[in-house]
Write a structure and sequence with these properties.
- The chain has 186 residues and is mainly alpha-helical.
- The chain has helices at 15-27, 32-38, 42-57, 63-77, 80-84, 88-92, 97-103, 115-130, 136-143, 148-171.
- It is elongated, with a radius of gyration of 16 Å.
- The two termini are 18 Å apart.
Length: 186
């Protein structure tokens, strides 16, 4: 299941952590495994879950786009855990697997994506591949499509999720079985 065993649900008695876990479960990302592993250090678990929830709940950038970015980053990181999870909110908003696959693939010429969405996907890709290439011209292009607040939301989302994905990959974690969660081969 994971290189670090998750705590049993009954062993987690921190009320704030349990409330954060309930919010995360409603969102679908992460599943309870993430919090149950982190719960060995409740203070860290609370902070990380709060941050993760803020990145998902912020409404400056379309949640469906952020979900595609999150999954693409998980695939870049080689993280089976986050790559297999799907946000309940994004699915309820109409995000489907075909659009996720397109966003994780050759999105540049895909008519399903606007120029703004392509810019955001490039941002995520470049932060992963070579952040040094994200220069003033790159930000100027982003500013054609997004406010500075939205760019900060995207940047924080990308940085946070990629680092959590690398962490979960190091633990060799896989999602808990859940009927609503798809498990792509990536």
């Amino acid at each position: 299941m994971s290189r670090v065993a998750p705590l049993e649900d009954a062993a987690i008695d921190d009320p704030e952590l349990r409330a954060l876990m309930a919010r995360a479960a409603a969102l679908g990302v992460p599943d309870p495994l993430f919090a149950r592993i982190l719960a060995r250090v409740p203070g860290h678990a609370r902070v990380l879950l709060r941050a993760l929830l803020v990145t998902h709940e912020a409404d400056g950038v379309d949640h469906r786009l952020k979900e595609i970015i999150r999954i693409a980053l998980a695939r870049f990181a080689g993280d089976r855990y986050f790559a297999a999870l799907r946000s309940t909110r994004a699915r309820a908003a109409g995000l489907d697997e075909a659009r996720i696959e397109a966003g994780c693939g050759d999105y540049e010429d895909d008519p399903r994506f606007t120029e703004a969405e392509r810019a955001a996907l490039r941002y995520a890709e470049q932060m992963y591949l070579d952040a040094g290439k994200i220069d003033a011209a790159f930000y100027a292009d982003l500013k054609k499509h997004y406010t500075e607040a939205q760019i900060m939301e995207l940047g924080a989302f990308i940085a946070f999720h990629y680092s959590m994905q690398v962490f979960m990959r190091s633990l060799d974690a896989v999602p808990l079985p859940h009927p609503a969660v798809v498990s792509p081969a990536h």
